[in-house]
Amino acid sequence: MHYVSNVPMVKEAMKQGIAGTFPSLNYRKEGELEAVLDELNGFLQSNQVTGTYGINLIVGKSNPLYEKHLKICVEKKVPFYITSLGNPQQVVEAAHSYGAKVLSDVTNLKHAHKAKQTGTDGFIAVGQGAGGHAGPYPLHLLIPALRREFPQMPIIAAGGISTGEGILAMITLGASGVSMGTRFISSSECAVSDEYKNGILNATMEDVILTDRLTGTPSAVIYNDFIKKLGVKQGFFEKTLSTNKFTKKYFKMYIQIRGMKWLEGKVIPGSKDSLWMAGQSVELIKDIKPISQIVTDLKSELHVSYQKLNANFLAV
Ligand SMILES: Cc1cc2nc3c(=O)[nH]c(=O)nc-3n(C[C@H](O)[C@H](O)[C@H](O)COP(=O)(O)O)c2cc1C
Questions:
Q1: CA-proximal residue: ligand 1, atom 6 (nearest)
Q2: Distance CA 247, CA 229 (A)
Q3: Residue 274 lies in a domain
Q4: Which residue, by CA, sits nearest to atom 16 of ligand 1?
Q5: 84 in a domain, yes or no?
Q6: Alpha carbon distance 7, 44 (integer Å)
Q7: Which of 49, 106, 180, 261 shows the greatest Cβ crowding within 10 Å of its Cβ?
Q8: Is residue 14 pLDDT above 70, yes or no?
Q9: Are residues 90 and 205 located together in one domain of the fold?
Q10: What atom in ligand 1 is closest to the CA of residue 25?
């Protein structure tokens, strides 16, 4: 999660036997990404770890550091990649050169077929209600549709999942696992401001809206005074520059950098304005707790909900 995931969160996830991930763009200063990857690789080799970590690369022209970061990740042998926005081909070739895996974000079947042709190893199916760049379709349709088309592919469900019951539902629909973002913003290890964490606890699903003004692609945010000022739709001028064939490459890059700058200054403690990216699962998140507790609770909810399902519907 942009400006939200950090090294302590990723390490704690690895300790808990799950995969912690973060966008490479969280570390943009010279030498910073290399140092973070050295630290995580050292931790991965220690005997405290049963999970792993992965890097999200925003693929393509809107990410000015894409090629540079991919090269660093390959040198450091990152265990797996999540690709978003563009064509994952280059990442797939680079990752497969040393046996790493690639999961590609998809929001519909068309993009999934295109990603499959590049040799990607699996999909992250991003559905309605997700934090970040949410998809247009509900997961109870997207997951079975993907499973029908790609019976053998790993499919990870993302969007609106924050409980063990949610995980069970996704597995029942055919998902191989789940990816959760918003739940982990309200974790003790997350370093965003208390206002942001409390913004999540106090928000309902109706407070989460989509704005294209942040990155040019609809992003889920909690509606607050900053978003009221920012607006939710690109104006005529911005739309023209981001579709014109001569300007779109540079304008998209500019929007991406501007969005990163806005986020950078508005999620940390002491921020003047507040920009809170989050998905609709805010509705069910009512506490701030350590990642170890979040994982323990998810496992126990998953277990209890499976027992209930079994007792109420399956046992005859
Ligand atoms: C604050 C925030 C920032 C995010 N940043 C990124 C990102 O940089 N790249 C990406 O691929 N996904 C990003 N996501 C999406 C997550 O990786 C994940 O797909 C999503 O959070 C799942 O939905 P959920 O928030 O409902 O759990 C972000 C999500 C949030 C909440």
A1: 1
A2: 26
A3: no
A4: 181
A5: yes
A6: 12
A7: 106
A8: yes
A9: no
A10: 8
Q: Exposure of 115 by Cβ count < 10 A (0-12 exposed, 13-18 middle, 19+ buried)?
A: buried
Tell whether the model's pLDDT for residue 138 goes beyond 70.
Answer: yes
Q: What is the pLDDT of residue 222?
A: 94
Residue type at position 199: G
Question: How far is ligand 1, taken at its centre, from the CA of residue 132, in Å?
Answer: 4
Q: Which residues line ligand 1 (CB under 6 A)?
A: 1-2, 4, 23, 56, 82, 84, 105, 126, 130-132, 158-161, 179-182, 277-279, 281
Whether the pLDDT of residue 217 is over 80: the answer is no
Residue 134 pLDDT > 80: yes
H/E/C letters for each residue in 124-179?
A: EEECCCCCECCCCCCHHHHHHHHHHHCCCCCEEEECCCCCHHHHHHHHHHCCCEEE
246 and 216 fall within a common domain: yes
- Which pLDDT score is estimated for 272? 67
Q: Are residues 140 and 243 in the same domain?
A: no
Distance (angstroms) between ligand 1 centre and the Cα of 133 equals 7
Ligand 1 atom closest to 280 (CA): 26
Number of structural domains in the chain: 2
pTM above 0.85, yes or no: yes
Per-residue confidence (pLDDT) for residue 267, from 0 to 100: 66
Query: What is the whole-number distance in angstroms between the Cα of residue 276 and the centre of ligand 1?
Result: 12
Q: Do 162 and 115 belong to one domain?
A: yes
Lowest mean pLDDT among 97-106, 193-202, 285-294: 193-202
Task: Give percent of the chain with pLDDT exceeding 90.
Answer: 69
